[in-house]
Amino acid sequence: MSEILPNIHRINSQFDGRLLASYLLAGDKTLLIDSGFANTPEKIILPYLKNLPIPVERISWLVVTHASGDHFGGNAAIKRFSPQTVIVAQELDAPAIANHSKFLAEHITALGAEGIPVPDMKADSQDFLSLHGPETPIDWVVQGGEELELSNNWRTRLLHAPGHTPGHLMVFDPLNCALFIGDAIMGDGIPDINGQLVMPPHYFEVDWYLHTIEIARRLKPQYIFATHYPPINGKDVDLFLNASQAFVSKFERILVALLEQKKQSMEMSSLIVAVRERLGIPEADYQYGLLLHAHLQKLVRSKQVRIVHDNGITRWVL
After folding, report:
1. Per mean pLDDT, which range of 41-50, 111-120, 279-288 is the poorest?
2. Overall pTM surpassing 0.85 (yes/no)
3. Which of 259-263, 282-286, 290-294 is most confident?
4. Are residues 146 and 288 in the same domain?
5. How far apart are CA 264 and CA 24, in angstroms?
6. Domain limits at 29?
7. Which distant-in-sequence residues (6+ apart) come within 8 Å of 259 by Cβ?
8. Torsion angle of C-alpha atoms 134, 138, 143, 146, degrees rounded to 10
């Protein structure tokens, strides 16, 4: 059992050596934040509820923080056991959460067309479905700012927190001064279960990501609860937010210095190799491609970098 605050539970699992947590806020009505992968509910969430004991049918809302398979893959399983549960998502991510083809179009096809190395995924493949589960409609599409009343004196607020994805949601609990961030803010990297960084932060839009960090900072939370990190509280909250902001500046310095040093245009594959070597966090090309894409877009907008097309290959030069 992992009751991290009164009536707030962290439901722990692991994937590929990393932490994977959902959160349960159990008042007169119950809120589940994220359903994990397709098999997470039956393997982890439902057994946890049984031990409380809270019937799965008591889950009033399932808030999906964003369109990543480890956050919405279990939606169908939750609905199968609790049809009345209302699945909630932000309007910009809701289509990709509900529709696999839309998810692949936004997260794979569109990025691959811009030179980012993307995994070979098909919506009807067994590997894809084993993680992402069957397609499941969103019951309530929100913008951000909506409140969920768990009890007479306990309300949570949904916050639009773009950057990692365009339609990311955070959940703020003023009663406990707790902020549930999903993947909206990612420190200086994602650790494995032993605390070793194994993945850099990644986000689709730099300025949105920095804005989300400021949203969190203004709330002055005493607790931050994320998907892939142990609970963060006290002085560690500011340290985490500072580290998240510092990573953005560090990555941009690395990228600009690299382009200055090369003094020639560089394509995505070369940038990925060079930046990964300088950053020192081992991870697949896809995550580094996302980061580079976000920062290169920002640098192009500010006219620090320009795009060069060479024989069908996109390159960037300072």
Report:
1. 111-120
2. yes
3. 290-294
4. no
5. 51
6. 3-243
7. 266, 305, 316, 317, 318
8. -120
